[in-house]
Amino acid sequence: MAVFDIQPIVSELAYIRQQWRVSQGRPLESGGRNFPSPQAIKAVIRDLTGILFPMRLGPIDLRQESEDFYVGHTLDSALHALLGQVRLELSYQHRHEPLADDVLEQRSIELVQSFAQALPEIRRKLDSDTLAAYAGDPAARSVDEILLCYPGLHAMIHHRIAHEFYKRDLPLLARMSSEIAHSETGIDIHPGAQIGEHFFIDHGTGVVIGETAIIGNHVRIYQHVTLGAKRFPSDASGALTKGLPRHPVVEDEVVIYAGATILGRVTLGKGCTIGGNVWLINDVPPGAHVTQAGYQGTGMSDPACIVSNGNGSRVQTE
User: Structure pTM?
Assistant: First the structure.
């Protein structure tokens, strides 16, 4: 049996860990982990998904007459598991000035109860997203197919849950939830993004939606669409300024086709259409159609866009 000389490696890794903790101003850690677990959150999300759609995404042997029992039993279990993760997140947030045990427990319970009360509204919005996908995709044969098979709906289940964590100032739980869907679908939605009802992501691979994006109702987007930031302002010390609105606002009934990149705090007006592969850094008026300027006879595509205002007039924009 081979014998490896591992002790120097163990010692060096211990030294590097210690250097990291010192550089981050962290005390020596003792006991178990003091922040939430992605594996635990993945299990909670799996249970919550079954609770929201028991006969489609719950146990394969579930019968309709047992739905309420399954939902109640699983919800109780999931909320207790979530409570443990919320405690860890709050402890992590207050690691430099720890909360009293009774305050930590009470705040954790309140946050979990508040989240649980949002589940019916999450289900209602997801129903509208499912109907949007069915209405928007001629290849869809049923709403069940949408729910069982479509990555865009899968990503939205995670996002609707993650956004509720985000609203309750649980950023680690929120980001873990969204990154589970990101890794499984290729759709990257920051949990802070505000997304209205009846939202449909068709195909989905490569979609990116930033933290401060605001999306209205009845919006449809296609694969490889980016709703991103144009620039990242810094403070006097050169560190990035966080929390500023920096992503697009998409009003109701907008359609954004594949490959479009919209950057910065621009507004896409109600009912406008953004063509495929458009690069856009300007506001778009309501009802307008934005397309690539096309070829200029040089063999190279002009990066400018054409905005049609719906009345026959056109404006070229860089």
Answer: 0.89
